[in-house]
Design brief:
The protein is of the alpha/beta class. It contains 18 helices and eight strands. It has a six-stranded parallel sheet, sandwiched between helices. The structure holds nicotinamide-adenine-dinucleotide.
Length: 414
């Protein structure tokens, strides 16, 4: 199931999907000639809706003939979401093994521990339930069940993933990373502090179950932080120089508007299922966008903020975003500036600065601070933040990211 869209099929499918005019209008406008050619690949089967998690047994029976299943999750989610009881009810004919040791920003030792348990129990399918950390852990273990070596071989030595992973079902409980539909698993080597996205077409889950009810238990600050991730990923996707295309852009623009329309409500009213549902969809849309394009500078800059200063991933991504936008707009020329203005326009901003200020207002309105100096970071940290950012650049930014550029972002965000 690897749909490759050519111009004709792409337009046909948009009509078939009955997307609204406003939804498809901005990106289609940008197509200036009919020589467009691009690839959009998204092999994940989606089940979306409140209560969908309770149908997982049926979905597994429909698509797989397996007995030995591994649940990859966090202890705290096991309790909060009553995962064991609910899964045992659904998977009566299966042997369920539980790996509940996922931690935020998963590191290689945890992956290896999960792999050993999976090998010992001859696991045939993995269900990863949680935020990006649990889904990425599940992806990495599923991959290592069929590919030799350790996870560090793939982080550092860039070993090629040559074989299909065992089947994986990804079930998000945050609305942020979009990992349920992405090509990457982000793992940190705890010894070097290098946090790297391992990208392979074999990293895609087979199925994603997006059940917004699972996000109702998220505390306010996690709701905010993961929501910032949606915004950062959508914006960065539109600025990547790699495989940006009208479909990725359509999803990104929609995600941007949905975050501004829904995040504050989701933070203020955690039980509001409409806001939760819209944020779950926004996260999915941003995932559908950036899995094509990858991310750029702000995500690289987020790595040292998370690794050395314990700032949650999404929060760490949004902090430098306004400064990056200013620098891209100033240094990249008209085309990139127009790209940023197009994003700004969908949320009624007329300038790049206004767009950045609107992001900062959203951060404040959802209970957080906007400056590194307010989060305990000092000038003494600058050199290490620059170095670690340079170590994890994606190479997809619209300008060459130098130490000087990262230093400017640091100063503007400080
Ligand atoms: P997370 O998975 O690290 O979870 C953060 C915290 O939220 C945890 O303490 C967790 O227990 C809690 N939590 C999650 N769901 C909850 C719920 N429903 N109720 C109560 N508490 C809940 O956070 P995240 O932001 O979703 O994921 C971040 C990780 O994902 C980072 O490692 C990041 O690099 C990675 N990431 C991966 C991709 C990808 O494409 N693979 C994309 C973006 C980010």
């Amino acid at each position: 199931m690897n749909p490759i869209f050519n111009n004709k099929v792409f337009i046909y499918n948009l009509q078939k999907l009955k997307l609204t005019k406003t939804f498809i209008y901005p990106p289609l406008l940008l197509i200036k000639n009919n020589k467009m050619s691009f690839k959009y690949e998204m092999p994940v089967k989606l089940h979306i809706g409140n209560g969908e998690f309770n149908k997982i047994g049926k979905y597994i029976k429909q698509d797989f003939n397996v007995k030995n299943i591994l649940l990859v999750t966090e202890k705290v989610l096991m309790e909060k979401l009553e995962l064991k009881e609910r899964l045992l009810k659904q998977l009566k004919d299966c042997n369920l093994t539980i790996f509940e040791y996922v931690e935020p920003n998963p590191h290689s030792k945890i992956i290896e521990k999960g792999k050993r348990l999976a090998q010992k129990n001859k696991i045939e399918l993995i269900i990863a339930i949680g935020g990006g950390s649990a889904m990425d852990t599940g992806k990495a273990i599923a991959m290592l069940m069929t590919n030799a070596g350790t996870i560090n071989d793939y982080i550092h030595k860039r070993r090629i993933i040559g074989r299909e992973s065992i089947p994986l079902i990804a079930i998000p409980t945050t609305s942020g990373t979009g990992s349920e539909v992405t090509i990457a698993s982000v793992i940190t080597d705890e010894e070097t502090g290098i946090k790297m996205g391992i990208r392979s077409e074999y990293m895609y889950p087979n199925i994603a179950i997006i059940d917004p009810e699972l996000t109702l238990t998220m505390p306010k600050h996690i709701t905010a932080h993961t929501g910032y991730d949606v915004l950062a990923q959508a914006v960065e996707s539109c600025l990547s120089n790699s495989n940006k295309n009208p479909i990725s852009k359509m999803f990104a623009l929609k995600a941007i508007t949905m975050v501004f329309d829904n995040l504050k409500t989701a933070v203020d009213q955690p039980e509001n299922i409409d806001a939760r549902t819209n944020m779950a969809l926004a996260s999915l849309y941003a995932g559908l966008a950036f899995t094509q394009t990858g991310t750029v500078g702000p995500h690289s800059f987020s790595c040292p903020l998370t690794t050395f200063h314990n700032i949650n991933h999404g929060y760490a991504c949004i902090l430098p975003l306004p400064a990056f936008l200013n620098i891209y707009a100033e240094k990249c020329g008209k085309e990139v500036k127009n790209e940023i203005l197009e994003m700004a326009n969908v949320v009624d901003c007329k300038t790049v600065e206004e767009f950045g200020n609107k992001m900062k207002k959203l951060i404040k309105d959802t209970g957080e601070k906007t400056r590194l100096s307010e989060l305990g970071i000092t000038q003494d940290d600058k050199a290490r933040i620059i170095k670690n950012t340079m170590d994890v650049l994606t190479g997809r930014d619209p300008i060459e990211i130098t130490e000087e550029v990262v230093g400017m972002v640091f100063d503007e965000t400080f």
